[in-house]
Specification:
Pol/His_phosphatase_N
Length: about 280
């Protein structure tokens, strides 16, 4: 690998899941932000990885194909990132189709709950914000913003769509050990996303390492310095790779998260790639 001149950002989203921009525009923005290595990690979807790779090559970026999976650790939701996955993996494609159908059913349940609250949205109003098969709560929130029901995506979650709010509907999630096996079976390396946001502790990471976890997203856009220090220490103790991700969705969805705002070392990237399944 030649020396890199730019940031390494291993966490971003396109319209294949809940991002604001298609993969081509995310790649363009990554290049403009000084990113050298860029991963596209859509929720439960590999639909735009082919387009992402082509766009990355056009902008001189090294592309890391990825995915983000919503999974269960005991009774908690956590998010698992897969990096260097094979976009043509039959297992990933099959899982994507299964999740897309379950998300569509879930969206119908949310529409029904919102209607009971006096908020009438149609599937078409929501689906126009999705560039792929995956429908997610931010698509509902953006439809609510467009209608003037709320002023922001955050307000939609705070009032209606967040866990415990009146229009919340839980989603299908697989056990984290099964998700790690899925990622590794697709040739990827599994990393736990934003552990500070999900209150992941050392014991949790020990268990997940035994199941094949390769790394921890230590340098996340929302982690404060003390959280980064905490997970760096755990990574050193457990021989896990500390990774970096802006978790970019676009300013309408997640304002404040900018591509390339966090980074990791080239040596850490090489260690992560060496741990592919």
């Amino acid at each position: 690998m030649t020396a890199l001149d730019g940031a390494i950002d291993l966490h971003s989203h396109s319209t294949a899941s809940d991002g604001q921009y298609p993969a081509e525009q995310v790649a363009e923005r990554a290049a403009a932000a000084g990113v050298a290595v860029w991963a596209l990690t859509d929720h439960d979807s590999v639909a735009q990885l082919r387009a992402g790779r082509a766009a990355a090559e056009a902008h001189g970026l090294r592309f890391v194909p990825g995915i983000e999976l919503s999974v269960h650790l005991d009774k908690r939701e956590v998010h698992l990132l897969g990096h260097f996955v094979d976009p043509e993996s039959a297992e990933l494609r099959g899982f994507e189709d299964l999740l897309a159908e379950k998300r569509r059913v879930r969206m119908g349940e949310m529409i029904h709950k919102l209607a009971a609250l006096g908020v009438a949205l149609t599937p078409e109003e929501i689906e126009k914000f999705s560039g792929g098969k995956t429908l997610a709560r931010p698509h509902v929130a953006r439809a609510m913003v467009e209608r003037g029901i709320v002023g922001s995506v955050k307000e939609a979650f705070d009032r209606f769509l967040g866990e415990g709010r009146p229009a919340f509907v839980g989603r299908h999630r697989m056990p984290v050990e099964d998700a790690i096996a899925l990622v590794r079976g697709a040739g990827g390396a599994a990393t736990i996303a934003h552990p500070g946001l999900n209150r992941i502790e050392r014991g949790d990471l020990e268990r997940m390492k035994a199941w094949g976890l390769s790394g921890v997203e230590t340098y996340h856009a929302d982690h404060v310095p003390s959280q980064r220090e905490k997970y760096l220490k755990i990574c050193a103790e457990l021989d896990l790779v500390p990774t970096a991700g802006s978790d970019f969705h676009g300013p309408e969805v997640a304002p404040g998260r900018k591509l390339g705002m966090v980074s990791m070392s080239e040596a850490e990237l090489e260690r992560l790639e060496a741990r592919r399944g």
